[in-house]
Amino acid sequence: MTVGTALAVGLCGVEGSIVEVEADVGRGLPGIYIGGLGDAAVGEARERVRTAAANSEMAWPRTKIVVSLSPAHMRKHGTGFDLAIVCAVLIANSDNAEAKGRLRRTVLIGELGLDGSIRPVRGVLPAVLAARDAGARWVVVPEANAQEAALVDGIAVGTAADLQQLWRWVLTGEGIATPRSGAPGQAEFAVDLSDVDGQSQARFALEVAAAGGHHLFMQGSPGTGKSMLAERLPTILPPLTRRQQLEVTAIHSVAGALDQSGTLITHPPFVNPHHGATAAALVGGGAIPRPGAISLAHHGVLFLDEVTLMRPAVTDALRTPLETGSIAHVRTHHRVVFPCRTQLVMAANPCRCGAAYASECTCTATDRARHDRALSGPLCDRIDINVMLTPAGAIVGTGEPGEPSAAVRERVVEARERAAHRWRAQGHAAELTNATVPRARMRRQAGLNPEAMALLEYKLKAGELSRRGVDKVIALAWTLADLDGAATFTFDHVTTACGLHDEKIY
Questions:
Q1: What is the torsional sign of CA 113, 118, 120, 126?
Q2: Can you say how many angstroms the Cα of residue 505 is from the centroid of all Cα atoms in its chain?
Q3: pLDDT tens per residue, range 369-413
Q4: In this predicted model, what pLDDT tens digit does every residue of 312-367 receive, in sequence order?
Q5: Residue ranges of E strands in 36-182
Q6: pTM (global) more than 0.85
Q7: Which helix (H) or strand (E) covers residue 17, if one does?
Q8: Contact at 8 Å (CB) between 39 and 114?
Q9: What three-state secondary structure class fits 118?
C-alpha cells in the first residue's frame, strides 16, 4: 500500500486555502473513491481523471484507489482539483523521491479534458495568491490562465497544455512554460468628462461625490445626461492601488468575468446592471455563492439606471451591504463573504413618461404616486447627494469642451489625501473616505464651527433632516472643505452641503 500526495487550492468566495490531496493505492476491487466534502464536480472527477490518464498513455492502477481531500471539513467546489487528483494517484506507485518532493512544493490548478488537455478554471488569481501566502514554491495552471496567474509576485508560475507535459515536468523538472511576469493593465478610459455639455451643477455634484466617496442620485428628463455623467464618474476617481487592483481582479476572476487575456483591472470598475435584475444578480448568491453586481463594483461605481423600474425588494437588498462594505452569504455548512466597498449612483426619470415638469406629461396622479413610491425611504436615506438635471442645464453655451477628467481627478486626489491625513491622525485606516468614516467619530470632529452646528440642529428639530441626514451633511461639508483646501468646514460649506443633500427627489 502506497500513498501519493499533491496540493490544490479550495476557494471560499475570494479566500483560498491549501487542500492536500492524498491518494491511497491498495488492494481491493478496481475503482476510485473520493472523500472530503467535494461537490458534484469533484465527484465526477473519478472517471474524468482516469480517462484522461488512459488517453495520455499513462499507466493507471488497476486496483482500489481512495482519494482524500484535506481538510475534510471544508467544502470543495469545482473542477480545479483534477490535476492534483491525477498526479497524486500516478505518483503513489512511484519510487521517484525527487518527483514526490516536487509535488509537495507545487500547487496544481486546472481541469482535465478526456483527451488529457488541461482546461481553464475560474478563480485562478485568488488561488495563486493563497498558494503564495501558504509558502508554495511553484504553481502550475492551464495555459489559458497563464497571464492571470502571472499577476502574482513571489511565486514561480508554470503552465501546461496537457497532462503529458505536466507529468514530464513532475518527473524531470523540465518541460513547462513560464509566462511573463505580470499582464498589461487596462487601456485608458474611452470616455471623458469633457464630453458632457452644460449641467454645471451636476458636474459639481459628481466631483463632490468622487472626492468624498458619496452616493449620488440623479433625476431628470430623458436626454439630460444622467447616464453620461454616471459613466464618467470612474474617470475622476483616484487610481486603484496595487492591493485594490488585485482585490477587484480576484472578484472578477471568481465570477468568471475576467477576459482570457488576464488583464489586471487597474481602473475603478463601472457596473451597470439592467433594471430587470434580480436581488441575486445585485448582491450575489446561489448554491455555490458567486459575487453579484455590488461586489463586481468593489472600489468602483455601481450604477442603477431607471432605478424606479426596479422592484423595491431588489433595491432594498442593497441597504446593509452599502453600510457595511461587505455581503455575507450563509449556507448550511459554510459562510462566504464578498467585499463590496462601492459607490452607488442611481438615476431616474421624474415620472413614467419622463415629462413631469412639462405640459406634455401624460401620467395620471395615480401613476405619479406609484412612481414616487418606487424607492423605499430607508434606501433614499442612504443617499448623500441628490441632484436634479433639467433640459435647460444641458444646453451648450460657448460650444467649447468642458473641463477634462484629468483636471478634475487631480482635485479629487488632493481632497482625498487631505481627508486620509485627517482620519489617519484619528486612528482610522487611510483608505476611509468622508462617506465611510464611522458616524460617531464624524460627530465628535464636527463641533468645530458653532454656527454650522446650530444650523444643523435647527434643521433636525424642524424635521428637514433626519439623524442620518445630519451625518450625511457633515460628511459632505468635510468633503467641500477638503476640495477648498480648508482645515475645517465652515458655515458656507454646511449651507452648500445642505443644498446638495436636501434637494428632495422623493
A1: positive
A2: 29
A3: 777 778 888 888 889 999 998 876 655 555 566 799 999 999 999
A4: 899 999 999 999 999 999 987 788 999 999 999 999 988 877 676 656 777 877 77
A5: 64-70, 106-108, 111-112, 118-119, 138-142, 156-160
A6: yes
A7: strand 15-26
A8: no
A9: strand
